[in-house]
Amino acid sequence: MAMVDEHVDVLIVGAGLSGIGAAAHLAKDLPGTSYAVLERREASGGTWDLFRYPGIRSDSDMHTLGYRFRPWRGDVSLADGPSILAYVRETAREYGVDRHIRYGHKVVSASWDSATARWTVTAEVEGGESRTTTADFLWSCSGYYDYDQGYTPHLEGVDRFRGEVVHPQHWPEDLDVTGRRVVVIGSGATAVTLVPALARSGAAHVTMLQRSPTYIVAVPGRDAVKERLTRLVGERRSYGVVRWKNIAVQSALYRLSRHRPRLVRRMVRKATIAALPPGYAVDTHFRPAYDPWDQRMCLVPDGDLFAAIRDGSASVVTDRTATFTETGLALESGEHLEADVVVTATGLNLQLFGGAEISVDGEPVRPHKTMAYRAMMLSGVPNFAFTVGYTNASWTLKADLVGEYVVRVLRRMRSTGARTVVPVRDGSVDEVPLMDFDAGYVQRVVHTLPRQGTSAPWSLKQDYLRDAATIRTARLDDGVLRWS
């Protein structure tokens, strides 16, 4: 029998980077708003608490990954996971968010009732018990991947392998690679982080086995501009300047990549050649078949991956796996890789809204039948918002914009007495995929995602500078949002 837990003005799902940021926006900008945060796990931090693999770090610079309202302290460009987790939890304590988190609550369903203008959210708790929370507004901040299971393709012959097979999403605390041969399958952000970290951990040798190359760019481990500015004007003033500097650089690189892909290809190739030993087969292992930013670029601090290749502790093999053997991997080329540990850094399983079933007045919401309004609300779904970050820049840049916009919506509802707000789709707007992104985890499920439109406010441009201007100044009475 379900127990009634509580009623709140706003219910947030997820206590990770997005959820804690959302709650902090409410705490600082809408005082007096009652809210709760439902977190399925027994700890806050989301991604930064879940992932424990060696070398875990941010894949974008910390001066833009940090919240706009709470500067990231320090000069490190790509911070390690424990530092980011501490930053997120410190933010929760500073804004009192930690007192509103309900741990061990896995949201399984959320139903909207127009008669009462309320959401009823059901969560499973320990022991199989269910609890319900009602809310005037529902805000999904659960990210976009499945926390229970990472993506692993079919691995032929894996049962005969006598070594260990590990997925980074579930890294064993007692795994020791000292003196062991490690093969990391994959070439994305996780793989390029793991390879040099495992090499530093004393592995006999680490091999990155990739089907095809990825764009990998070395960046300074510390921001020299930030260091100099901090000495001159102090931490807080320097943060704003460096943040906008990094935003401008990110945006410029992305736009240049889309408009002049051949130029960016040449730039990246030239830098890669300089970072690797003379005569290295750069075009075999570091020349992707796709254009820059068709998939996310991988950043490596101080070129640590290239350094591991130079000193011989790591290597790259571009080939396909034919089958596992008792002692390693047989490749389609006929080569055999000896291995004691195989790490399947093969990606994520994308999952919307934490897998919860959403319904409106008894009718299930099928995401692929909806259109995303400003990439944060769904057509036909009242009093609902979701936070999904950028694919071409720091996640938190978009999360902060969503937070600011939701606060504007809630403030207007409070001042006018409106009880519902819902984006209503115009049938004349054409549909396109929500994410124009070739990454495997997106392409596997793109047909299940909400659509976006070809014109504002239904289109997503993956452009923070444009979004920052339009989202912060957009009229709430735009003819698309319906208030009642």
TrEMBL record:
Gene3D superfamilies according to UniProt: FAD/NAD(P)-binding domain (3.50.50.60)
Pfam families: FMO-like, NAD_binding_8
Keywords: FAD, Flavoprotein, Monooxygenase, Oxidoreductase
Superkingdom per UniProt: Bacteria
Parts forming coiled coils: none
UniProt cofactor(s): FAD
GO molecular function terms listed in the Swiss-Prot or TrEMBL record: monooxygenase activity
Family of the protein in this entry: Belongs to the FAD-binding monooxygenase family.
Name of the protein in its database record: Flavin-binding monooxygenase
Source organism (scientific name): Nocardioides flavus
Lineage: Bacteria, Bacillati, Actinomycetota, Actinomycetes, Propionibacteriales
